[in-house]
């Protein structure tokens, strides 16, 4: 499965009552494909507020996204959790929705050891014929899926990629040790260029909601050998990479990017509790940023 170089971890649009806004969801999918040049959309990941979506909402999003994309891009379903049995159930349900793969986050809060992490991902992968993308985000889960465990998991037939937010050192270890067909994506927008430089394949991005086309130029410049131009584009993108998470102080994702999309004419609505909307100071900062 080729998921391309630029994946967007898509937000979930809500209406004024906090329910999924299907009309805006369709507009958002079209916009991310046609204007921001996403190769793949990750639906119901952390940026999509998966902790506050019901299983029924997730499955409806998977079905809707597959139908709306219509083959114009790939759709990856976020089906991971810290409950192995539940992740297996949701992954099987997602498979029937026609998605092109699943994203499995490292189990949060219960903090298994590396063998527990291996067995968790192995059990889910063996329950499905879908390609599996691992997701290591220590800042949110409280645990690091090590390079050694990732490389071990990469030996399994349908574990095809990882989204890793750890250090460039860890990404380098994974690229060097995993099979050549295994794809390494960064989950940190500001590490896009670094990830390519150490042999990674691309980025699963939040900033691509608003600067995806420029990020695609950055990636293509680097791959064509124009490292100087890639560096210039990285420098131009960097304020947005950082600002969406630090506006004007650290804010939980996807608060900032949802407001940024509204400024772009895609009214994706607010966030669900326990997240709260951007403050007036944060809105002013984001407005200047965008």
Describe the 3D structure:
By secondary structure, this protein is an alpha/beta fold. The chain has 12 helices and 8 strands. Strand 3, helix 3 and strand 4 form a beta-alpha-beta unit. Helix 4 runs parallel beside helix 6. The two termini are 34 Å apart.
Q: Profile the largest sheet.
A: 8 strands, parallel, barrel
- The amount of helix comes to 40-55%
The main sheet orders its strands as 1-2-3-4-5-6-7-8
Order of helices and strands: EHEHEHEHEHHEHEHEHHHH
DSSP strand tally: 8
- Binned strand content: 5-15%
DSSP helix count? Answer: 12
Overall body shape: globular
Instruction: Quickly give the structural class.
Output: alpha/beta
> Which stretches are poorly predicted, pLDDT < 50 over at least 5 residues?
none
Give Rg in angstroms. 18 Å
Mean pLDDT, to the nearest integer, reads: 97
How far is the N terminus from the C terminus? 34 Å
Salient structural properties:
290 residues, alpha/beta, eight-stranded parallel barrel, 12 helices, 8 strands, 46% helix
């Amino acid at each position: 499965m080729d998921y391309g170089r630029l994946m967007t971890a898509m937000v979930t649009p809500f209406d004024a009552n906090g329910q999924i806004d299907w009309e805006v969801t369709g507009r958002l999918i079209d916009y991310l494909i046609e204007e921001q040049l996403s190769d793949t959309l990750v639906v119901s990941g952390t940026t999509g507020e998966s902790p506050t979506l019901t299983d029924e909402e997730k499955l409806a999003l998977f079905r809707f996204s597959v139908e709306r994309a219509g083959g114009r891009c790939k759709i990856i379903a976020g089906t991971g959790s810290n409950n192995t049995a539940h992740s297996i159930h949701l992954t099987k349900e997602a498979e029937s929705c026609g998605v092109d793969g699943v994203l499995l986050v490292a189990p949060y809060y219960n903090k298994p050891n590396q063998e527990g992490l291996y067995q968790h991902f192995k059990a889910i992968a063996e329950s499905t014929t879908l390609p599996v993308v691992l997701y290591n985000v220590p800042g949110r889960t409280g645990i690091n899926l090590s390079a050694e465990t990732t490389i071990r998991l990469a030996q399994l037939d349908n574990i095809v990629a990882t989204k890793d937010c750890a250090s460039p050192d860890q990404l380098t270890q994974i690229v060097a040790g995993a099979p050549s067909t295994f794809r390494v994506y960064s989950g940190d927008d500001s590490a896009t260029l670094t990830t390519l430089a150490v042999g990674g394949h691309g980025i699963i991005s939040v900033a691509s909601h608003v600067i995806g086309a420029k990020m695609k130029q950055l990636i293509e410049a680097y791959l064509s050998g124009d490292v100087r131009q890639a560096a210039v584009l990285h420098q131009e993108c960097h304020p947005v990479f950082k600002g969406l998470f630090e506006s004007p102080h650290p804010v939980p994702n996807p608060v900032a990017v949802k407001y940024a999309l509204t400024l772009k004419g895609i009214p994706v609505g607010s966030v669900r509790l326990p997240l709260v909307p951007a403050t007036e100071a944060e809105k002013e900062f984001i407005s200047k940023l965008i």
